[in-house]
Design goal:
Blueprint (H helix, E strand, L loop, with lengths): L1 H17 L4 E3 L4 E3 L4 E3 L4 H9 L1 H14 L3 E10 L5 E10 L7 E9 L4 H15 L9 E5 L3 H4 L1 H11 L14 H13 L1 H10 L6 H11 L1 H14 L1 H10 L5 H17 L8 H9 L1 H13 L11
The structure holds zinc ion (ZN).
Amino acid sequence: MPKIINSSARLRNFVKEFGEDIFSCDNAVLFCKVCGIKVSAEKKYNIQQHIARGKHIQQFNIRNQQEKPKSQVLVTDETTDVEERYIANVIIGTLEVDNPGKIFLLNSEVLEKANHSTISKLFDRSIFILWPEGVLHDNILLFNGESRKNFTTPYRINLFKNLAPGIPLPPEPIITRWSTWLNAVNYYCEHFLHIKNVILQLGSDDALAFKHAKQLVENPEIEANLIYIKSNFGFLANEITRLETSGMLLSESVCCIEKVKQQIKQASGKTGETKKLDDVLNKNSGFKILTIISNILSGQKERNFLKI
Ligand SMILES: [Zn+2]
């Protein structure tokens, strides 16, 4: 029966063309595996029409969602036990679209010390527990080893407290908040000798950050630079915090900026040039308007009134 042979070959071609995961066929019928129904295959157009239908697309999406293995998030959580041993816990969570994922403890180990190498090995051992047959690397979306930073803190904190009694622990500047950096400068300037002492004691620590810190505190320019920044610009941290206060009067805010401008102008040395600050304020038309409004509100003569 040549007609059926032709038809069968044609259907097989359609299956190949549109995907074997979507269609299957026998000698006479094209079958959509997604919808679980027979699909007319008289013309190619019929198949195109079928896969463009909302119902097919919906079923297709549902199937994909079910088949897709859930993405895993691994997080290390480190702590010390009563004997001051370092305990690393690896927590695994699933990322789900519509609801909060499940979280459970995957692995818990005592580590001799915490550094990049021991944490990486812990990570390897943990994912092997999860996938003994072969690691599905693509499913791991995130490995948060950041808390490693705090991992050895009990030891470091003790050392710090012994070597620098009565001095608060170093601040942790927030990268996007300038005042926190300036506060850090003020802190390191005030306690430089104590901090230097602690860092030199921690020199044997294998964390790369401490090697860098050691080089820095031994650089004679650092202390001089800290003193320069603190004495000329240290006040900025307070002014930034003031400007962030809600409910501050407009006149107070403008006054604060003017004061900052004046103080920066007084800063000695080339770094104290106010060109950058002037440029920023000149380009900021909103600030100009606010200054004019503030002057009007405080009863000062304002020639630029009509420019608003
Ligand atoms: Zn279908």
